[in-house]
Specification:
Strand order of the largest sheet: 1-2
Helix content: 40-55%
Oligomer: single chain
Number of helices: 5
Shape: elongated
Strand content: 5-15%
Number of strands: 2
Length: about 120
């Protein structure tokens, strides 16, 4: 064989890199093919990552979470316009209204907490 073949060996992405990639796709507003083209990623790889993440999510999403009750009285819901307010470590606060998308909130918390 006279021609030399060049094979690019890619390193495996970490779980955190995969989560970040999925989060970027979901917040990009791009179609899967547009996103993959921009990132040099195959459609099947993105689909596999998303499918794996969906399979790893808790079945009923009824996982127990530790909470801390603050000593101050919360603002009434009518005053804030939120159905739920969540204060994360580091002082981050997330407020959501009734009928919010729970999977989007879960993803946001994971990104902010660096999970």
């Amino acid at each position: 064989m006279n021609e030399k073949q060049v094979v690019e060996v890619r390193r495996r992405r970490s779980r955190r890199e995969v989560e970040q990639l999925i989060a970027e796709y979901e917040s990009s507003g791009l179609s899967r093919s547009e996103f993959c083209r921009e990132r040099g990623l195959s459609l099947s790889t993105l689909s596999r990552y998303r499918k794996r993440r969906a399979q790893q999510a808790p079945a009923g999403r009824n996982a127990l979470l530790a909470v801390e009750v603050s000593g101050r009285a919360p603002a009434p819901i009518a005053a804030t316009g939120s159905a739920l307010a969540l204060v994360l470590s580091g002082g981050r606060r997330i407020e959501v209204g009734r009928g919010f998308d729970t999977s989007a909130l879960e993803q946001l918390v994971r990104v902010l907490e660096g999970v």
